[in-house]
Design goal:
- The chain is mainly α.
- The protein is 55% helix and 8% strand.
- It has one domain (7-70).
- The longest helix has 39 residues, at 32-70.
- It is rod-shaped.
- Bound molecules: zinc ion.
- Zinc ion (ZN) binds at residues 10, 12-13, 15, 24, 26-27, 29.
Length: 71
Amino acid sequence: MTVARKQSKCPYCFETIAEEATRCKHCHADLSKKKKKLFANLNNFRIGFLSGILFTLIIWALFYFWLSGAG
Ligand SMILES: [Zn+2]
């Protein structure tokens, strides 16, 4: 039994294409933009989330050192 490649449908011509395809082999539509945008949004979200945590940690560290230094 062979393991079939993951497949999806081209949103333009509805032919079956490989899921990782960046260009439809049937109608040659560019399928990379949608994925890139999704990943960019995901990266922006992740970067914002991480910098938020980092900022909070730095504030807490400063606050802690300020308290221990003053106390
Ligand atoms: Zn297509």
